[in-house]
Amino acid sequence: MSSSPQSIQGDEGNREQLASLSKALLALHKTLLDSEKVGYEDSFGKIETPAVFFQLVMNDPWFAWLRTLSEFIVLIDERLDEKKHPVTGEDVAEFFGRARALLTPQEDGAGFALHYHNAMQRDPDVILAHAGIVKLLQSLQNP
What does the alpha-carbon distance between residue 22 and residue 110 come to, in Å, rounded to a whole number? Predict the structure, then answer.
């Protein structure tokens, strides 16, 4: 079974959109980590090494809320790594929809939504990273 040039272009376009989402989410994740590190150090003192920071990110409750975003990025990257099945428009729509839902800050929420809201309130870099993702997410709605 061969793919038509049109379907190959569509497959590659879908892959590029999903890869762009992953890249934007990684940038947001780094921004959130940097922001949380500042708050952690204000409360508990300087984090001495990158290895200690890594252990804190992986195990300390302070950073636990960020694991939701980490796991979502892993899901996207796993889908991108699937070689047997091309990335479909449905895949892109699903992941973009899930990103929209996840990245909805809620002042009266819980878990990720509340922490995300709080991060946006205290750190303009988080707002800028969020705005970039919103623009990307809107590109799927308004191609």
Answer: 24
The residue written with tokens 């878990």 in the block is 111
Q: CA–CA separation, 109 vs 84, rounded Å?
A: 39
Nearest residue to 3 via CA among 115, 104, 86, 118: 86
Sign of the alpha-carbon dihedral angle for 47, 51, 52, 57: positive
The rounded distance, in Å, linking the Cα atoms of 105 and 115 is: 8
Over residues 10-53, the pLDDT tens digits come to: 678 999 999 999 999 999 999 999 999 999 999 999 999 999 99
User: What's the token pair of residue 113?
Assistant: 């939504």
User: What residues contact residue 56 under an 8 Å CB cut-off, 6+ apart?
Assistant: 40, 47, 62, 63
- Which tokens hold the place of 2? 């061969």
Q: Tens of pLDDT along 59-87?
A: 999 999 999 999 999 999 999 999 898 99
- Which single residue is written with the structure tokens 């819980």? 110
Side-chain-side CA neighbours of residue 107 (13 Å): 2
Amino acid letter, residue 87: V
